[in-house]
Amino acid sequence: GAVVSQHPSRVICKSGTSVKIECRSLDFQATTMFWYRQFPKQSLMLMATSNEGSKATYEQGVEKDKFLINHASLTLSTLTVTSAHPEDSSFYICSARGGGPGGPGETQYFGPGTRLLVL
Amino acid sequence: GQNIDQPTEMTATEGAIVQINCTYQTSGFNGLFWYQQHAGEAPTFLSYNVLDGLEEKGRFSSFLSRSKGYSYLLLKELQMKDSASYLCAAMDSNYQLIWGAGTKLIIKP
Questions:
Q1: Which of the two ends of chain A, N or C, has the fewest CB atoms closer than 10 A to its terminal CB?
Q2: Where are the beta strands (DSSP E) in A39-81?
Q3: What pLDDT does B96 receive?
Q4: Residue B102 CA to its chain's centroid (Å)
Q5: Residues of A in contact with B31 (CB under 8 A)
Q6: Contact A111 B42 (CB under 8 A)
Q7: Separation CA B105–CA B100 (nearest Å)
Q8: pLDDT at res. A53
Q9: Do B87 and A44 touch (CB under 8 A)?
Q10: pLDDT tens-digit profile of B53-64?
Q11: pLDDT one-digit tens code per residue, B6-48
Q12: Between chains, do A108 and B45 touch, taking CB under 8 Å as contact?
């Protein structure tokens, strides 16, 4: 299957600082990338969908000024958690769509996730 | 509205067979995905069905009935490493994935 990398895998930061997470599709071009958050023992929660070269579409309840998403190229999307607080501590997972069964409805492949701990 | 239903938890024995069911209701339909997620890790892609019938891939098979809005994931010759959550997701007319809450599969020796 297609490979998606995510960096860093784990980050600890102080409250009030900003953290940037990178998501890269390594062997395919991803026109669409997704950012999810998952709290322990809970379901994946879609935060936003980003298409290359355009503004991200945020799900209801997700603050776009707090979670800045940039999808500058077909292989890179970044999520910046601004002014992080302890309640932002979570497992953040990106996925990229492409490289799977044909057509626009291509498979989503997930990055390994980033575990964020805000102290 | 759009909805995915799958059991919360299932238990099976090593070496046995288990079937995880999923029913879906979506606005339009462009396929049904199954993902595996081990604790503390990101989901990994298992299968994709868009036509009715059974798709077999090694020990794992996935079935789809579009008329019934129903799919199942069949795991054979269960191994301890198969202990994980299995996520069912249906793709709607906008090519967006609608996720189920996942089925936690516990394998006992």
A1: C
A2: 45-51, 57-58, 67-73, 76-81
A3: 84
A4: 8
A5: 101, 105
A6: yes
A7: 14
A8: 79
A9: yes
A10: 999 999 999 999
A11: 999 999 999 999 999 999 999 999 899 999 999 989 999 999 9
A12: yes
